[in-house]
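Q: How do we represent a protein-ligand complex in a form that can be generated token by token?
A: Start from the inputs.
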Amino acid sequence: MNETLERWSSRRAFILAVTGAAVGLGNIWRFPYITGENGGAVFLLLYVAFVALLGLPVMMAEILIGRAGRRSPMQSLGHLAARAGHSRHWRWLGLFGAFTVFCILSFYSVVSGWSIEFLISAINGDFVGQDAAQVGAGFDAFLADPWRMTFNHTLFLAMTMLVVAAGVTKGLERLNNLLMPLLYLLLLVLAGHAATTDGFGPALAWLFTPDLSAVTPTVLIAAMGHAFFTLAVGACALMAYGAYMPDHQSLPRAAVGVAVLDITVALLAGIAIFSVVFAQGLDPAEGPGLMFVTLPVAFADLPFGAFWLSLFFLLLLLATWTSSINLAEPMVATLQGWGLRRGRAAAVVGVTVWLVGLLSVLSFSSLADVKPLFGMNVFALVTTIPPEVFLPVGGALIAVFAAWVLPEAVSRHALDAGPVGFRMWRTTVRWVSIPLTLVVLISGLI
Ligand code: PHE
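Then emit the structure tokens for the protein with phenylalanine bound:
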């Protein structure tokens, strides 16, 4: 396939598209519970450090490859490698990325289904007057009902695949860009309101006073994995976006903007959620249900709380909807590259993801104790291994490709950051990002 001539309509459009991929369940659902499970401040500190040292430079590497290749990820990798005198086999990295997003989408859809459930409950006013324990009991009853969960998972995945099949993602992106500031605003109000509650002081202490003696390989690997996950880096998903990046736009500047926004959203969600945790004496390490049992309580004291809670879940669903469309796109594009028509490709991807997603659904009932690997059930496996192992492995390979395989002239042109910016980026990737990723991965494996 030849170079695409399509470009995002403006620099801003490119940044908004990358933000759409980055901001999602990772910030509002995954960040708080993983932080809670990994000791709070020490995790937060490492995660921010990893975003700066690994996430950002590798994000630039990934987008740069797409921009230089101007093709689908597999084709860009194969084409650029061949032109530089390297093996075309590099293209399989694109397939590995598609496999990674496949695993991620299988649980992403299930958890987004939980948001559908909470949206409906919030609209019905079910949470009015409930404390966290009562919300938690309702949530557990929901998790124990595979039929309801399957229904929501099916609904969400159908919503995603229909948009992908129709290829009308542009309109949805526009709606997303219009409404996301409202989600940020709601989070800001929520965090501000948290400052007036008893839980705020302990929450800040828990989030911002790290105890460095608590650093373990588990915490390191969790923090690294989350840095990749939240930025959507390591699965060649952003590479696909790079192909449409306009000429004359500094890549580092765009990437830093996205990362700052991404961390800010996570922090606001964290402050709001942990304030409730400490005010109500909950366990920060409660797990994947953390966001769901705390947010209804966080909104309860606000005037018209039930309304704002409903709006919040609606906006969250929109954010996860666009993220999941981004997750599905690389797989559909790969199948299309193999000659399938778009609608067929979307159907194949949808059905397979749906089936694998059922294993996550059942992980809360009949398959709860079926632990195929590392003593984890399927939901625990798919929420852990792809973010913590596949994304860093993919990210390291992407970084090697951009900083060692590509000729300097090509990567320098695609980074578009001037000679000094380019040297800083390449030195960081070569001597910090790649070795650090490998060291953390290996320490985690041992
Ligand atoms: N970054 C997305 C989120 O935070 C998830 C994602 C991961 C999207 C990997 C694409 C690729 O929700």
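Residues 305-337 form the longest helix (33 residues). The chain has one domain: 11-445.
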